[in-house]
Amino acid sequence: MSSPSSPIIAIRGLRKIFHVGKVDVEALRGIDLDVEPGEFLSVVGPSGSGKSTLFHIIGGLTPPTAGTVRVASEDLASLSDAGRTRLRKTTVGFVFQKFNLLPILTAGDNIALARHIGGNRGGETARFRGVLKLLGITERLGHKPSALSGGEQQRVAIARGIVNEPAILLADEPTGNLDSQNSQTVLTLLRDLNERLGQTILMITHNPEAAAYGHRMVNMRDGRIVS
Question: Is the model's pTM score more than 0.85?
Fold first, then answer.
């Protein structure tokens, strides 16, 4: 794990090129970025700016073409497929625009499945019980996703993302499928998780109003950080 004095995410010279037929598409063009432990960082930019590619590389879902990416002191380039899978199970949690809840399971079972996949065989910790209360879903755990509102489904997805207490929570357009009221609720809850529990959060969004909920905002355009 990173020490408090070092970035929990450290990126230098990151480039990503996708080969589409005979055409090379440069999605990232030399990204340098540090994220400190306990920070809530918003990465904002239009479609095609490279922010989702950055998200997938930090999460170990896509390999970089060049540059270095260190997540919780681990150099992603040095990790095997199994090592990147372990990173996703234990160190990085994910929240996506689409809630991706299994419809045949209750909300509680969706969360429990994530705990099982992460190798956590123990019971709920006091911290996680506090998270469920903070998210306001304690009374909804016995319901299947079809019986939950969009905002409730996203709150369950957030709980699933942090059930194994990851060092970093990556949120990709977490309010993209929500109305304005539910969007505000989810963004406020993410900020509360950060401020009350010290959860490091990196959020990808195209919406500057959503990005403003973070401590710091990074703007991307055409594969580069522009401000």
Answer: yes
